[in-house]
Fold this sequence. Notes:
The radius of gyration is 19 Å and the shape is elongated. It has helices at 6-22, 59-62, 66-76, 89-99, 112-125, 141-146, 158-161, 166-170, 198-201, and strands spanning 29-32, 79-84, 104-109, 132-134, 152-153. The protein has a five-stranded mixed β-sheet, sandwiched between helices. The chain starts with 5 loop residues before the first helix and ends in a 14-residue tail after the last helix. Helix content is 35%, strand content 10%. By secondary structure, the protein is an alpha/beta fold. Helix 4 links the parallel strand 2 (79-84) and strand 3 (104-109).
Amino acid sequence: MKKHLSHLLILLMICAFTLGGCANSSKPAAETNSQPVDSTPSSTATGSAQQDSNVVNDESWNDMSKDELYELAKKEGGTITVYTISSRMQKTCDAFIEEYPELKAQAIDLDQGEAVSKIEIEAQSKNINADVLQCKDGNGEIYYDFYPLGYLETYYPTDICKHIDQDLQKYGMPFYASMNYWYYNTKTFPDGAPVSNWWDIIELGENGKQKYEIV
């Protein structure tokens, strides 16, 4: 559908889906921008949420109630398309349709790389098929690369954010933690591990980009 109002409603349901334990907490949902921009937007503060210059946002959406969004969304019509890396997202779409019977929604189940790649290609070609993206962002690619380019936009509903301490809105907090093991090739690095602390991971190379990539 590539509209701005109806997919805000489904974002609210995806938040409930995530908070209910049905999805990985490191899979944020964001709305895709049907009009990609070429320059980095200026800093904005929307509702009670803290934002920086990476974030593109239309402030007027945040203060609208679900009923207001629904009435406007019905005029837009079409089908809301969600790119997701969770096979359970269709259940959220089904629940969404039950609550908002005059709207349509579908979930497209993809793997992480495919979902991110499709968003990038669609934004660059200005042939937008997705309205909402639900995926992981462990290395910050979505927040630090896609937002400045205008590929995605954030949504901070005021009636929800006003109940959350602003300090808790600045950083994402995981719902669970797991153990990851790190290995390195002793032939490639005969003098020992190339990384000795967390800061080494984000060290920039001569080309100005991170020397190491977390995959």
